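Example record used in the benchmark description.
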Amino acid sequence: MTKLRPALLALALTAAGAAAAADEPKPALTMQDVLDQSTAADWRPLDPDNTLYVELASGRVVIELAPAFAPRHVANIRTLVRAGYFDGLSINRSQDNFVVQWGDANSADPAAVRTLGEADAKLPAEFVRDAEGLDFTRLPDVDGWAPEVGFVQGFPAARDTKANAAWLAHCYGAVGAGRDAAADSSKGNELYVVTGQSPRQLDRNITTVGRVVHGIEHLSVLPRGTGPLGFYEQPGQRTPIKAIRLASGVPAAERTAIEVMRTDTPAFQALVESRRNRRDGWYVQPAGHIDLCNVPLPVRAVTAKK
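Model output (structure tokens):
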């Protein structure tokens, strides 16, 4: 047997150890690990012109609008908000495991209904848009509601490339424009937020205009309405809306200082994997699968620069 000199033996052992270490699987990252390792480039501020502040007595609900998917509706909502249309109206519906909805409680009374002013009274249905040209971050798992699902600019979305169609998904926190039976009967003056199990059957059947990014607890804890579809039967049960404002119309010092995690980065892909294959100490069996609406969309507070 050939004997190695001590120096060569030490070198061989070091190389063998390095090879063995390389073969060992890297420790799985938890979601907190991903967030701790993220950089400033993994986060983005909200566009003030596409951010709504719903001011309630209990606090502020922050909504990010999605003009890339519903441009006409978002434009109408901006017009209504700037005119103060929603100020003094109310949340009129809270249906268990479904939605919270607000608008004009007198909408059925022509003599008392609030007029739309300069906003459009007729909008097209904006259920889908062209998939081509979208920066789509696809999830690795199959979905029962669409050929492909993922994220576009921070919004849970789905697409069908064969039909060149893409749409926003009705996940928890999704904001939609209520409509009547006609597909083109929404105007953006009746809005709802999903506060229950994701009703994906609404995908491509109603115009989705954005999502709640902060403060949804002010909506999800509201008492459930006792009337049909969760509508409140007495005016006193409704929650008044102090005001709805665009962040761009609010002084900078009074804005909610938050950033949302970008969904087009390796950090976000690592976050998705940390949730689809949970290897935290408590988990016995990683799922190896994640539903679109179970992917968390992190938000963090930011300190104003001095």
